[in-house]
C-alpha cells in the first residue's frame, strides 16, 4: 500500500498522487460493470484503469483475467481506515506542494 506520484497517476486522480493497494488477482473478486480506460505509454506499456459506472470514481487498475495482480485505488474503499501506506513511488515526479507522511519507504521510480 502506498502513494504513487507518477504523472499518469496524478492526471488520473486529478491530484498530486494516487493512494493504491497492490493485490494478487486471486485475492480479489471483481464483479459488476466498469468504465475502462487504457493509456498507452511511449515505451509501449499500457495503464488500464477501471471506474464505477455510477459515480465515475476510479476503483481498480488492470484487466480482469489478464494480470497477475491489480491495483485497488484506496479512495474506493468503503472503510478508508483499511489503507495503511508503507511506500511512496515515483517521488521524482512529486509536486512540491505534496507533503509525504513520515516513515514511508521512498522510491524515485518503480521499486524492483
Give structural notes.
The protein is mainly beta and 112 residues long. The protein is 6% helix and 34% strand. It is built from one helix and eight strands; from the N terminus they run βαβββββββ. It has one helix spanning 7-13; strands at 2-4, 18-24, 34-40, 46-52, 58-61, 69-73, 87-89, 105-106. An eight-stranded mixed beta sheet has the order 3-4-5-6-2-1-7-8, with helices on one face. Strand 4 and strand 5 form a beta hairpin. The protein is globular. 21% of the residues are buried. The model has no long low-confidence stretch (mean pLDDT 91).
Pick out its properties.
112 residues; mainly beta; 8 strands
How much strand content do the residues show? Answer: 25-35%
Tally of alpha and pi helices: 1
Q: Name the helicity range.
A: under 10%
Largest sheet: 8 strands, mixed
> How would you sum up the global shape?
globular
Q: Report the strand count.
A: 8
Distance between the termini: 15 Å
Structural class: mainly beta
Unreliable runs: none
Strand/helix succession? EHEEEEEEE
**Average pLDDT number:** 91
Strand neighbour order, sheet with most strands = 3-4-5-6-2-1-7-8
Radius of gyration: 14 Å
Amino acid at each position: 500500500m502506498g502513494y504513487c506520484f507518477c504523472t499518469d497517476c496524478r492526471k488520473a486522480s486529478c491530484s498530486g498522487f494516487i493512494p493504491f493497494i497492490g493485490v494478487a488477482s486471486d485475492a480479489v473478486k471483481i464483479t459488476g460493470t466498469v468504465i475502462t480506460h487504457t493509456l498507452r505509454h511511449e515505451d509501449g506499456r499500457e495503464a488500464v484503469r477501471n471506474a464505477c459506472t455510477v459515480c465515475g470514481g476510479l476503483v481498480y487498475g488492470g484487466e480482469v483475467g489478464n494480470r497477475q495482480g491489480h491495483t485497488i485505488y484506496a479512495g474506493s474503499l468503503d472503510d478508508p481506515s483499511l489503507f495503511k501506506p508503507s511506500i511512496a513511488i515515483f517521488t521524482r515526479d512529486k509536486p512540491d506542494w505534496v507533503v509525504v507522511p513520515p516513515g514511508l519507504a521512498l522510491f524515485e521510480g518503480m521499486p524492483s
